[in-house]
Specification:
Layout: H1 3-44, H2 63-75, E1 80-84, H3 90-101, E2 107-110, H4 117-123, E3 139-142, H5 156-159, E4 166-170, H6 183-196, E5 201-205, E6 224-228, E7 242-246, H7 248-258, H8 274-304, E8 308-310, E9 322-325, H9 329-341, E10 363-366, E11 379-383, E12 389-393, H10 398-415
Parallel strand pairs: 2-3, 2-4, 4-5, 5-6
Antiparallel strand pairs: 1-7, 6-7, 8-9, 9-12, 10-11, 11-12
The structure holds pyridoxal-5'-phosphate.
The site of pyridoxal-5'-phosphate (PLP) has 12 residues, from helix 3.
Length: 421
């Protein structure tokens, strides 16, 4: 590393830190409200050490699991929740919700355009279609997003002209260059949908959104939502798992798909790991706040270099994702390489674009996290396709993002994409 590049990178970072100071203060203050909600739920359920050991085998009557479900329901402002290590991922939790509730002949309508990559194979719009919803006779339609990435609210009535069992709303941008939906916007969509078809259910893919705002989609009328435990709610220590939350009847239907009809939510051991799920939830408000600061700092750094970023610095956030549009693959890969070198695990690895199960495009991923596939420590990835957008997320402390970004800045300068003049 040359000294001028190093000095320039330090200056860029200092300027970015300066820009985010007011937002940082606000974010840190927001932890208290969310943590109080978690503590209130623990108090209401009288959480104690006796909830940490699991019933083995069937896991029938496991007190820890029952308390865990009620605690999550309270924190997520939902009637019921099911939190399970048996959910392999967020995709699995979402798929269980969809298969659990939908029946042959039902129509599923996505209101937020093309869903997250891994759901395409679940729905049956890409891949082999083996066991997809389409194979089970679920009719799928989607309402395209507008050119600016917003929901086509004027088009909803037309899209709901046919009887529809469920609409799917994706809160987070996923791997698309679009604004994430705020909970208030989701609430308005729920209202619109229910006015047109009162019996139509609203499902929300809540991945990456948990605890970012003060309300969750289930507080504004969503019937059911699902997400991953190795994202926001796992607080960086949940070893695996996912959750569904919402109306009790629908949570049970999702559980009947996860386990079996008749067993539903009443089976499934916690492998003596429930302590980590409680502890992760306890840490989650702070981890989410730090992740938001890392996102803010990432936005400030790359906006400072003239790249388009979404959300903007100081902009509204409904998830922990920060998108940066590079427009070409080389800087995207260079930044991922720098982030990887600053990862706690696998810093020696060189992230190369590779296919991932469930994803259509090759992905370049900088994710040296303690939990495999988790994005809770500061990490970034991007599909190798136009317009070459980097999606950064996570971060257990803003200092980690500072280190990673400074290294990325040096790499950008060395690559000649920017630097001291
Ligand atoms: C992460 C994510 C999922 C689920 O992904 P998994 O890797 O299966 O946990 C679904 N939707 C969105 C928007 C996501 O960000």
């Amino acid at each position: 590393m040359s000294a001028p590049h190093q000095a320039w990178a330090a200056d860029q970072l200092a300027a970015a830190l300066e820009r985010i100071t007011p937002v940082a203060r606000e974010r840190r203050a927001g932890v208290k409200l969310r943590l109080e909600r978690v503590l209130e739920a623990f108090r209401a359920e009288r959480l104690g050490v006796h909830h940490f050991a699991s019933v083995s085998g069937y896991g029938h009557g496991d007190l820890g699991r029952e308390v865990l479900d009620r605690v999550f329901a309270q924190v997520l402002q939902a009637e019921a929740a099911a939190v399970r290590l048996q959910f392999v991922s967020g995709t699995h939790a979402i798929a269980s919700a969809l298969y659990g509730v939908l029946r042959p002949g039902d129509r599923l309508l996505a209101l937020t355009g093309r869903p997250y990559d891994t759901l395409e194979e679940v729905i049956g719009i890409r891949g082999s279609g083996q066991g997809s919803l389409a194979e089970f006779g679920i009719v799928y339609d989607e309402l395209d997003l507008l050119a600016d990435g917003g929901v086509d609210e004027a088009g909803i009535a037309g899209a709901l002209a046919l009887p529809t069992r469920m609409v799917l709303i994706q809160r987070s941008c996923g791997y698309s260059w679009r604004p994430s939906l705020t909970v208030a916007q989701i609430g308005r969509l729920v209202e619109r949908v229910k006015t047109i078809q009162p019996d139509c259910l609203v499902f929300v893919d809540n991945c990456y959104g948990e605890l970012v705002e003060l309300q969750e989609p289930t507080a504004v009328g969503a019937d059911l939502m699902a997400g991953s435990l190795i994202k926001n709610l796992g607080g960086t220590i949940a070893p695996t798992g996912g959750y569904v939350a919402g109306r009790a009847e629908m949570v049970e239907q999702a559980c009947c798909r996860l386990t079996a009809p008749g067993i539903g939510s009443e089976g499934g051991t916690g492998f003596d790991l429930h302590r980590l799920l409680f502890q992760g939830l306890f840490l989650a408000p702070q981890m989410v706040s730090e992740a938001l600061l890392c996102a803010e700092l990432t936005a400030a750094v790359f906006e400072g270099l003239g790249y388009a970023v979404k959300p903007l610095v100081g902009g509204v956030r409904s998830d922990v994702i920060q998108a940066v549009r590079f427009g070409s693959p080389e800087p995207l890969k260079a930044v991922c390489r720098a982030f990887q070198a600053c990862s706690p695990v696998g810093s020696y690895l060189d992230p190369v674009p590779a296919p991932m199960p469930g994803y259509a495009s090759e992905l370049v991923m900088a994710g040296g996290t303690f939990i495999d596939g988790s994005t809770s420590e500061f990490s970034a990835d991007g599909p190798l396709r136009e317009p070459y957008v980097l999606y950064a997320q996570g971060g257990t402390t803003a200092a980690h993002a500072e280190l990673a970004l400074e290294r990325a800045l040096v790499a950008m300068a060395e690559g000649g994409w920017c630097g001291p003049v």
